[in-house]
Amino acid sequence: MSENLELLQQRADRQREKAEEANTVLQSVEARLSSATTASEEARRERKRTRSARQVAEQRLARLAKEEKKARTLAREADEDRADAENELAESRRTWEKRQAKLAAAEADVAAARAAQQVEASAAAGKQSRTARPRAAAARKATRKTGASTTAKSSSPRKAAAKRSTAKRTARRQS
């Protein structure tokens, strides 16, 4: 029986060793399961975080695309507005230059009419002074002979009227 007891003891020792080995394996598998569970939960959380980050990024991308489209439209409209303003400025400048030319012509016509009126008035005054003061007329003739220039060119009333009517026709055509 002692042999049986020893054999039983050996068998029990081997079973104990195998049980301890199985226990060690079980503990390592449990540790591995625990770390795998933790890693799995962490991976799920990371996946959820990255999915929500991707959605936020996609929303931001869509928003930025809309903003870019708006900015492109605004830039195009601003360029068109600038071109329109340049055209309008050029047109306004041409109109202003035409108006300035017409004003200059009108002022020249007024000055010519005033000069003609002054000439007529001086011619009329000259006729009166010739009859009243013959010496003044002789003095004027003397200055003409010496080469002194007169301030106004005398013309007949008929020529002055023709000049005025031409100036009026020109003014009407220009306006």
Automatic annotation (TrEMBL):
<feature type="compositionally biased region" description="Basic and acidic residues">
    <location>
        <begin position="11"/>
        <end position="21"/>
    </location>
</feature>
<feature type="compositionally biased region" description="Basic and acidic residues">
    <location>
        <begin position="90"/>
        <end position="100"/>
    </location>
</feature>
<feature type="compositionally biased region" description="Low complexity">
    <location>
        <begin position="102"/>
        <end position="159"/>
    </location>
</feature>
<feature type="region of interest" description="Disordered">
    <location>
        <begin position="1"/>
        <end position="175"/>
    </location>
</feature>
<feature type="compositionally biased region" description="Basic residues">
    <location>
        <begin position="160"/>
        <end position="175"/>
    </location>
</feature>
<feature type="compositionally biased region" description="Acidic residues">
    <location>
        <begin position="80"/>
        <end position="89"/>
    </location>
</feature>
<protein>
    <submittedName>
        <fullName>Uncharacterized protein</fullName>
    </submittedName>
</protein>
<feature type="compositionally biased region" description="Basic and acidic residues">
    <location>
        <begin position="60"/>
        <end position="79"/>
    </location>
</feature>
<feature type="compositionally biased region" description="Low complexity">
    <location>
        <begin position="30"/>
        <end position="40"/>
    </location>
</feature>
